[in-house]
Specification:
Blueprint (H helix, E strand, L loop, with lengths): L11 E4 L7 H17 L4 E5 L4 H6 L10 H6 L3 E4 L20 E4 H7 L10
Parallel strand pairs: 1-2, 2-3
Antiparallel strand pairs: 3-4
Length: about 120
């Protein structure tokens, strides 16, 4: 699997489906993400979750918070949070399906302590 990331035309890795932020999934993904980061530090890692960063993931007692959450988050570049809501569907949005979903620059957010929106680099 890691060898597939070696190609120059592959910019990174995206975690989605099966809810990556479920506690069991975080625990299983952390060792894999360590290997990805060690082998390909220049590749972006995105994660899509139906959970919300502040209430479900970062908050003590949040439903997606466990002993590996901070390390898991530290290895992500962009977190797309929020459940897809059909009534808020907007096909003009980039990298997300509904307007309630946020593209979060996770390293900047973790440094500042406030959500920093991700912006596409030219």
């Amino acid at each position: 699997m890691l060898d597939a990331l070696a190609h120059g035309f592959i910019n990174g890795l995206t975690l989605l489906g099966g809810e990556p932020m479920e506690i069991e999934n975080q625990r299983a993904l952390v060792p894999f993400l360590r290997r990805v980061r060690a082998a390909y530090p220049e590749k972006d890692i995105w994660c899509y979750t139906g959970s919300t960063l502040e209430t479900d993931i970062l908050a003590e007692g949040g439903r997606n918070r466990c002993e590996v959450t901070d390390e898991f988050l530290s290895m992500l570049d962009v977190l797309v949070d929020g459940a897809f809501i059909e009534e808020l569907k907007d096909i003009t949005l980039r990298f997300r399906g509904s307007s309630n979903q946020r593209l979060i620059d996770l390293p900047a957010t973790l440094r500042s302590g406030a959500v920093v929106p991700w912006t596409e680099q030219p």
